[in-house]
Amino acid sequence: MKLFKLTRKQIYTRIIVLTVLAALILPGLYNKLKVVNYTLESDKIDTPVRIALITDLHSCRYGDHESELLSAIDEAAPDLVLLGGDIFDDILPDDNTVDFLNGIAGRYTVYYVTGNHEFWGGVDQYQEQMSVLSDLGIPRLQGDVVSLDINGNDICLAGVDDYDSHLVDSDLILENQFVDAYLSLNASSYNIILSHRPEYMDTYTAHNYDLALCGHAHGGQWRIPGILNGLYAPNQGLFPKYAGGLYEEENTTMIVSRGLARESTRIPRLYNRPELVIIDLT
């Protein structure tokens, strides 16, 4: 039996192909935290308000005691910090999340809504994780609306649990929470809804929210900048409509964070750096 031997031309061709692939792929694997800024104008806002949106941390590590993430938040100096779900993970230990929450509790005005992973770990884990919020005094929104006076602006903040909340408590019905939140809105206020899943955009629009803040999609995991915004997102499938970024429908603006998940995901992010979202309302 003769062994297959490559010609010199074939060897050079394969080297070139591998070099080109490496040149295309390796830069896309760079996953250092970045800060993404959005500016939104509204007649309901008289003086500037800055919001930090953090989603999908999944207890991933950002420096010692989450120093990298906390420093980025401190540098932005937000008026309001909103945690949009999957801050905890169902597999990774809670240590990094606890460090992060300790770093912002009592220093910022913070509100929290759950994502699906807070419920996937089962009842006992869920209760332990929620007790961390309670012990730190971080409010969790479950169909609630809070009226906030931020820099002289009247802001109504609504928040709802993730759809998978029924896995640990059959009384946590998302549809009811949407209704409860809607009934508590003030039409003259700037109305924000904090909700983990962007695929409910039609609901946010139907309820006349000025701004919806979401995560969950992980930026579609793989991107081709300028060509493909995201390859796949949970509950949206291939080529998701709401992978990450800013979307406008009727009178509602939705911002979807690409999230902070890194080592918690089996498939690495590609051209999809983890992000801290900063929103300036003017």
Structure, explained:
The protein has 282 residues and is α/β, with parallel strands linked by helices. The protein has one domain: Metallo-dependent phosphatases (Purple Acid Phosphatase, chain A, domain 2, 4-Layer Sandwich). The chain is 26% helix and 23% strand. The chain contains seven helices and 13 strands. It has helices at residues 8-25, 67-76, 95-104, 117-120, 123-136, 174-183, 201-206; strands at 34-40, 49-54, 80-84, 110-113, 144-150, 153-159, 190-194, 211-214, 232-233, 237-238, 245-249, 252-256, 275-281. The chain has a six-stranded mixed sheet with strand order 5-6-7-8-12-11. The chain is globular. The model has no long low-confidence stretch (mean pLDDT 94).
At a glance:
The protein is α/β, with parallel strands linked by helices and 282 residues long. It has helices at residues 8-25, 67-76, 95-104, 117-120, 123-136, 174-183, 201-206; strands at residues 34-40, 49-54, 80-84, 110-113, 144-150, 153-159, 190-194, 211-214, 232-233, 237-238, 245-249, 252-256, 275-281.
